[in-house]
Task: structure prediction
Amino acid sequence: MRLLVQRVTRASVSIGGAVHSSIDRGLLVFVGIGYDDTTEDASWLASKAAGLRIFDDEDGVMNLDVRQIDGSVLVISQFTLMAMTRKGNRPSYVRAAGEPVAMPLYEYFLGAMSREAGGRVAAGVFGADMQVSLVNDGPVTIWIDSKNRE
Result:
């Protein structure tokens, strides 16, 4: 399972031209789910993302997590995070889980993220054609992979 986490001043997701969800200051989290991912991967990633100390404290040092700033989280499913680009120029998505595996794990991740982040979690719609708008603050963008826990 892979996350792309961005510190944002605001973010929203629109579906069919209408805003579906939006947040102010907090985290925008894109989630890619692989065919071999488990609830353990989802729990670990939710804890890791919610605990990232990437918000400035009173001294201007990145020392606070999303809970400490009373921030929100917007979670977006994105199978393209599982892309393999080793050969050629057309990405392969064979590592991405199909809907029967990915949808329950996405829902599980949303619940885990809500618990870890104090309940302030908004989301897109799994499998929908979504347009995401954001203001990346910093910019701060962090990649986390549950199979490569560095």
Remarks:
- The longest helix spans residues 99-116.
